[in-house]
Amino acid sequence: MVHRKSFFTVLLLWVITAIACKQSLNTKDQRPNILFIMSDDHAYQAISAYSNHLIETPNIDRIAHEGMLFTNACVTNSICAPSRATILTGKHTHINGKINNIQPFDTTQVTFPQLFQQAGYETAMYGKLHFGNNPKGVDDFMILPDQGNYINPNFNTPKGDTTIVGYVSDIITDLTLNWLNKKRNKTKPFMMMYMHKAPHRPWWPSPHKFKEFAAKNFPEPVSLFDDYTNRGTAAKTAEMNLLTHMKYGHDSKIRPETINEMGEITPYVPPVEWGEGFYGPYNRANAQQKSLYDPVIDSINTWFKNNWMKLSMEDKMRWKYQRYMQDYLACISSVDDNVGRVLDYLKESGLDKNTIVVYTSDQGFYLGEHGWFDKRFIYDESFKTPLLIRWPKQIKPGTSCDEMVQNLDFAQTFLEAAQISAPSDMQGESLMPLLKGEDEKWTRDAVYYHYYEYPSVHMVKRHYGIVTKEYKLVHFYYDVNEWELYNRKKDPQEMNNVYEDSNYQETVKELKAKLEDLRVKYKDSEKLDQHFIEITK
Ligand code: SGN
Ligand code: CA
Hints:
Layout (H helix, E strand, L loop, with lengths): L1 H29 L2 E7 L18 H8 L2 E3 L9 H10 L3 H4 L15 H7 L3 E7 L11 E5 L9 E4 L2 E4 L4 H16 L6 E6 L11 H8 L18 H5 L18 H7 L8 H14 L2 H21 L5 H37 L5 E7 L18 H4 L3 E4 L8 E3 L8 H8 L14 H4 L11 E5 L11 E5 L3 E6 L5 E6 L17 H17 L4 H10 L2
Parallel strand pairs: 1-7, 1-8, 2-10, 3-4, 3-7
Antiparallel strand pairs: 2-9, 5-6, 8-9, 11-12, 12-13, 13-14
Bound molecules: 2-deoxy-6-O-sulfo-2-(sulfoamino)-alpha-D-glucopyranose and calcium ion.
2-deoxy-6-O-sulfo-2-(sulfoamino)-alpha-D-glucopyranose (SGN) binds next to loops.
């Protein structure tokens, strides 16, 4: 009898344990993994899922073909570290305090990886962060210090610093694959942030892509020769013009020796501007790596020496544009190949079925539109950012969404997907209804933007604004007081500021009221504007 009793007790315990284990396995299985892929300065114009006039990116495109492409995704502040701070905190710049690349990131703030870690996820961050401090809430990290290096990059890791020989995009991918395949705790779902340095300036490709792309020719944007009429002071005074601000050495790969030999060149750029920069990534290369770059650099330099001074200003602009696109797109081609390696791994391992894959950039970028490179402005090419999301369990393949979504929304989206509750002071909105195709549940019709890094490199004036699908109203302040209004439907190139146009006065009035509402909603104010001016003096 006694034996019988204990037999039943053991059996009962076994059944309870088995049910509990099964439940915990089920719970684990139900929570999706998250693979967050972000590149640095990757313009949507250079992703073929958006447009293939410049490059084919078959691997990045797979995410959209098997998921959703966002055509109106944008950032809250178009610059690197502030965008990353917004993504991690789910808060606007003026709330999380990371207003520019220079102010330190306050690490006492809650970031979404911490919430994932606390909720039992295995978390990691590999690649570029650009905060000057290490990430919190990750079980593992390998972070490029500051901007990072293209060649033989250094990494900060929990175990100290290390240098890895090779090309940065390949290395970050190797490390990511190794973490996914070997390093992580496979009993837990994961949240991995895989963040490329490329295609950030100075657009330094891998040797074989450098050779391949230096032989290509790309179509010019219609506004390459923009003279900024019908725009305000900010566009006219920004220092990001291909002809006058792009550096011969640092950007176009002209050796200082070449310019010394040529004597005077036009437009003139002081030697310090090109001398120093050229040697950046190149100087990190070892002899074998240099020998792969040298033939291409030599042929660019020979052509420059023989032809530059004979070119008209227009042709100089065209040459600079081509050189820029050759290197920028070569960098993207490497990113795309590497994204393909990771997607292949997910498929082979079966992880693809329950992994949300996100591809985005920290902001957009000018690829010669308005004669520019760089970003910062609220104008579309830098304000918008690529966003492609694949989630087989929820997203219908091959869908697209034109709602005004922001990097501000990522944290709450990921948290909801992982059934983790989001702190109530996060300022975004979960994209879940859009991902599920329940668009009627999405009510936002306007977004708020605020850029601060001025005076600084590229000299883009401080501004804030409101953007709807139809209009963009912008206020440039600080050392000017100018408003601009663009009709996004009728003037997609944003060449014509209609703020003073009598036909738009009603629209201006409505948008100003709405902008003020957004400033109140997101807790931004003139007082804060002044505060940030004071602390950056
Ligand atoms: C560097 C670049 C700038 C770029 C900023 C910010 N110059 O200063 O062109 O705007 O970074 O970029 S370079 O000499 O380093 O090439 S960001 O992506 O980090 O915001
Ligand atoms: Ca960037």
